[in-house]
Design goal:
Length: 362
């Protein structure tokens, strides 16, 4: 039987399949002339997934007081909790029972009954191995807003460091990014007026506290216009910024898509990854979440994470634009790393809104 690279979201697995350099028809999703992997002849995937399955325990072997909301059928757990597959749960079931056919024959209850991870209820384990220890993201948010802003003990920085190292991204000298500013007229701005505001005028943002200047850039001109929320007939100046040296940033846009199969090289295992998936998703989501600036306290959690990243010597943070689906933003701690080499004027002549009807009965 053959599975294909398109059945997977995980980049490590996709690369393993592509490296086989074999084209064919996928036995699971039905795609033709795609990169395929012979499940029956090559044990590589079986060995990788075998290690992942080792962290799960069938419900019949779990303690009686194990929280039922932390259990589920393996096919659903793999679909909802991991970013490994790009197919639906029923196809995941067919694929995983084929890849791990020997395991399925020996231990069918692992695949056909609810399963859980023993360590999710182990407070000592979480205290040592989870980014937020025994807390949830909402606990951290409430604490940093209302209780102790500067010296709280909610984040396990040693664990955070492990996953930050997995999310490093490099940019080479000469790379181009963009920044937009609203203009009162069509006069525009000079290059030396397009940078970050001076510290005394720097207002709090998702990455920087009040009074600390950060250069916010985007990967395209379109994204910059979305990010400043330009309206109809607004005049907008867009500066083109060129990177002056090689830099390394933390890609928070992809921190929740780290492949669990690279763990041995970074110091974590499947269990530790599993208990941190939701924390990583929240960090990536919160850094990108659009805010209206009416409550600057909402910026505090991501400012805390960003300041920590800065303290570790990284040059910036990359995150998704929630205003432009194809957009990526980067916040650079030292604006001298970039030079504005060109500016252009634009006028907004169209805006597209997308919306859904809200069912108030829900």
């Amino acid at each position: 039987m053959f599975c294909c690279a398109s059945c997977f979201e995980d980049q490590e697995i996709k690369e393993i399949i592509k490296a086989k350099n074999k084209k064919g028809r996928c036995s699971f999703c039905g795609r033709n002339d795609v990169d395929v992997f012979d499940i029956d002849k090559d044990p590589t995937l079986s060995e990788l997934f075998g290690e992942l399955l080792d962290i799960y325990t069938p419900i019949i072997d779990l303690p009686s007081d194990f929280p039922k909301d932390r259990t589920g059928l393996l096919k659903d757990v793999l679909y909802k909790d991991w970013h490994i597959f790009s197919i639906e749960p029923d196809l995941i079931y067919r694929l995983i029972t084929s890849i791990c056919a020997v395991r399925y024959k020996e231990q069918p209850e692992l695949f056909d009954s609810p399963v859980g991870i023993l360590q999710v209820g182990n407070k000592d384990y979480l205290e040592e191995k989870a980014i937020l220890k025994n807390y949830q993201w909402d606990d951290f948010v409430e604490a940093i807003k209302r209780k102790n802003r500067f010296h709280n003990n909610f984040i396990n920085t040693e664990v955070l460091d492990i996953f930050l190292r997995c999310a490093k991204k490099s940019y080479e000298e000469g790379h181009l990014f963009y920044r937009a500013r609203m203009c009162p007229n069509n006069g525009g701005y000079h290059c030396d007026e397009m940078g970050a505001p001076p510290h005394e005028k720097a207002k709090a943002g998702r990455v920087n506290p009040d009074g600390i200047s950060v250069l916010y850039l985007s990967n395209s001109e379109k994204t910059t216009i979305y990010e400043i929320r330009a309206g109809m007939y607004d005049h907008v100046a867009i500066g083109q910024f060129q990177l002056q040296k090689n830099i390394e940033v933390i890609d928070l846009a992809g921190i929740d898509n780290i492949s669990p199969f690279i763990g041995n090289g970074y110091g974590f295992d499947f269990t530790q990854y599993a208990v941190n998936i939701k924390h990583l998703e929240m960090i990536g989501r919160e850094i990108a979440k659009p805010l209206r600036n009416d409550n600057l306290l909402d910026y505090l959690p991501t400012q805390y994470i960003s300041e920590y990243i800065k303290s570790k010597g990284y040059e910036g943070i990359e995150y998704r634009s929630t205003l432009d689906k194809d957009g990526i933003n980067i916040a650079v701690f030292d604006q001298e790393l970039f030079k504005c080499i060109n500016t252009k004027m634009h006028i907004v002549n169209g805006i597209e809104y997308k919306y859904n009807e809200w069912d108030s009965s829900i």
